[in-house]
Sequence to fold (226 residues):
Amino acid sequence: SQKIEQNSEALNIQEGKTATLTCNYTNYSPAYLQWYRQDPGRGPVFLLLIRENEKEKRKERLKVTFDTTLKQSLFHITASQPADSATYLCALVAGYSTLTFGKGTMLLVSP
Amino acid sequence: DGGITQSPKYLFRKEGQNVTLSCEQNLNHDAMYWYRQDPGQGLRLIYYSQIVNDFQKGDIAEGYSVSREKKESFPLTVTSAQKNPTAFYLCASSIAVSEGYNEQFFGPGTRLTVL
Fold:
């Protein structure tokens, strides 16, 4: 069956360090993968999209990689700040279909 | 301001009652979606609509109904047939339902509690 797996344990890091979140998938061949940020009690907000033929995408302090051989995407936040604390969701779609979301990983950045 | 609005933010209902959650967008998007989110769970798709007067079931449509009479509006009714309706409901829209390159814009959500 198709699965999207994100680490269910919260990631705790210190301010200024790089946070790395993982998204693994099985039985998908996605053409695109998206990352969203969700704050408690609010709707997700789109951050980045990466295509299958792109190895890496950057936006300010954010970097996403997409390895279709490993079936994995990594999401990096450099120089992390307490304001980056949130839950981060990956989402993907294969073919003409709707997005399927992972359960998300909570990131906690301490001062 | 462009965006998606959902109302109400909090909703309480008694068992056996139907309740309708509102979702409006002024982004001129063709596609709209309803998701349900439970604690520690990801977003699960209830229904989606690609165009006015058309909608498709998602992964967990049982006990829910929708309508799409206007492009801007996509209300969700939680019926008494939904066995476990207490959850956080999110509405979203995108330019189209296509091959995953269109980001989705989410509303602020409605938290439904069944008493």
Notes: The first strand of chain B starts at residue 4 and ends at 7. Residues 29 and 95 of chain B are 5 Å apart (CA to CA).
